[in-house]
Description:
The structure is a single chain. By secondary structure, the protein is of the alpha/beta class. It contains 13 helices and twelve strands. It has a seven-stranded mixed beta sheet with strand order 2-8-7-6-5-3-4, with helices on both faces. The chain has a three-stranded antiparallel beta sheet with strand order 9-12-11, with helices on one face. The chain has a two-stranded parallel sheet with strand order 1-10. Helix 8 links the parallel strand 5 (180-184) and strand 6 (212-216). Helix 4 (83-97) packs parallel to helix 10. The site of pyridoxal-5'-phosphate has 13 residues, from helix 5.
Amino acid sequence: MREKAVNMLEMAKRLVAPSLRSDVPPFMVMDVMAAAARLEAAGVDVIHMEVGQPAAPAPSTARAAARAALGGAIAYTEALGIPSLRRRIARHYADIHGVDVDPSRVIVTTGSSAGFILAFLSLFELGDRVAIAVPGYPPYRHILTALGCEPVMIETTAAARWALTGEALMAAHRARPLKGVLAASPANPTGTMMKAEALADLIGAAHDAGIRFISDEIYHGLDYAFPATTAARLSDQAVIINSFSKYFCMTGWRIGWMVVPPPLVRPVERLQQNLAISVPTLSQIAAEAAFDGRAEMEELKHGYEANRRILVEGLPKAGLDRFLPVDGAFYLYADVSRFTADSLEFAQRMLAEAHVAATPGVDFDPVQGKKFIRFCYAGSRHDAEAAVERIGAWLDR
Ligand SMILES: Cc1ncc(COP(=O)(O)O)c(C=O)c1O
């Protein structure tokens, strides 16, 4: 009787045992967010610079279009997206980058997050090796792993402005062949950007070696040091991933897009039909109208730019004088190795004592990340100024 019960327990355990591929690491920033929430619940005024999203809502044009659409049926759309939205996205490339993109190559996705899944599934086989930059956005490696591909982490250097280079890519490819490479400019967590020549060099090296190139352009529009270059201007073979989350302040709407080479359109369409049917319709309608709200978004961008200046000028005076080039997105990646060998502990202490929340670099770089913390400056001017002041007073103690 007892033996039967034990066997049943064992079987039950086996039935719900999670797959190995689901064993991806958590996001450490969540620990900082939870600690910040506990402090706030206790009445402490915390400055949030840990979460990578704008504080502002979507453009008013997007919100109005969504409100109007709510009067009617919200039905499935074509798997590739509402045709007028695909055309509007294609026009965006002509307007902003002077590049002709055929709307048939544009695919609407559930945020850029779904774009990665569709890109990896349509481009790679199980076991394929895909290069990514370190430091980098953690889900790149976790999605690749979950899908059975192997992320190949290439350390970036100050000399290469913290970006992948053709030379580093080729060195990794010679060690063991690569099938793909993914790069972002502006990048998260570094906020650094690749000049057009650097991006062209990387894409050229990749394509010459038969390596597929994926460009994460989610922070396009948020460029301060120099204009960001789209990979669409440099190659018709690149897979481009973008999103309404950051520039258009639509993180929770879960809407993005891809531009893919013509032979990939139908495979991605079939995947999307089966994985998602279509992208949330209300968000697609709002996204199309978001393009008419660019003036509002440009205002916000000027605000980020002002915050950037406050941090770039203020943090060195406050004691944090080493950080990567603050080119774009809304991140500043600071080297705190003068103060700690453990950035998680530093971030926790800064939160507890200075009441400023930032993200430890360990999420983005398992090795060097212990030396860095990331500040997001997409909040208010008051927050940027208060953060500099609080950090200065705290480091002075
Ligand atoms: C570099 C980068 N790519 C992609 C994403 C995913 O964004 P979403 O799925 O909202 O488009 C993020 C989110 O923070 C990011 O930082």
